[in-house]
Amino acid sequence: MSRPSRRALPGFGLSLGLALIWLGLIVIIPLGALALKPWELGPGGVVEVLLEGRTLAALRLSFGAALLAAGLAVPLGLLFAWVVVRYRFPGRRLLDAAVDLPFALPTAVAGLALTALFAPNGWLGAPLEAWFGWKVAFTPAGIVVALVFVALPFAARTVEPVLRDLPPDMEEAAATLGATRAQALWRVVLPSLLPAMVTGFALGFARAVGEYGSVIFIAGNMPMVSEIAPLLILVKLEQFDYAAAAAVGLAMLLLSFVILLALNLLQRRLRRAAA
User: Fold this and answer.
1) Which residues lie below 8 Å from residue 89, measured CB to CB, with a gap of 6+?
2) Is 118's pLDDT higher than 80?
3) In sequence order, what are the residues at sequence separation of 6 or more whose Cβ sits closer than 8 angstroms to the Cβ of residue 162?
């Protein structure tokens, strides 16, 4: 007499089915529609839309600013995590909570606040322009500032738990072998944190590349100068050019996938090297 099979997860078939249904409704079907819509223009029309000067400038700005912002957010997030984890000082808990503000703050509110700070008559914008001649608001530099603001929490929160679990014995052993503080940081601590830093970079980039609310107010939105790709998509939607908007969205999707795939492969290689 055969015994009834017992699965490790009760209701696995039903759970898997519901998960696949929700995945199809929320992810696969919308992405499929995005992939099919541009071809209403034909292959030549899609190429024409993507090679248009305004489209190339918007894509270049969105991806360039997102990569730069993620690159700036990683060392800033590492510095923040180091201070919070390794030091004890009054207000540490408040500082630890403040880094999560971009998660809770509506992006439009963040954009308005950053614009007020970095405008030519703002608290930070006025002295920067008067002392150094730097104009931040309504330029590509303002876009980078806004994207660093939204990417920083991802970099900090990704590195922080790894830094907490990093045993101090490694640094002490390096010190007993004659390594300076900088050498111990460079050769012992950073290699252990590098996979987490790559993850933080990837998450920050993924968050920044499609950002709209916090960028739209500070960007200036000048075509060919400070117009981001999400805004260009919105412009084409307002013109009822849905196929062209989908073409730009599909280009963003493919470029983001290639970059994130490369970062994932790099992270996997770093983890194998550290093992």
Assistant:
1) none
2) yes
3) 192, 193, 196
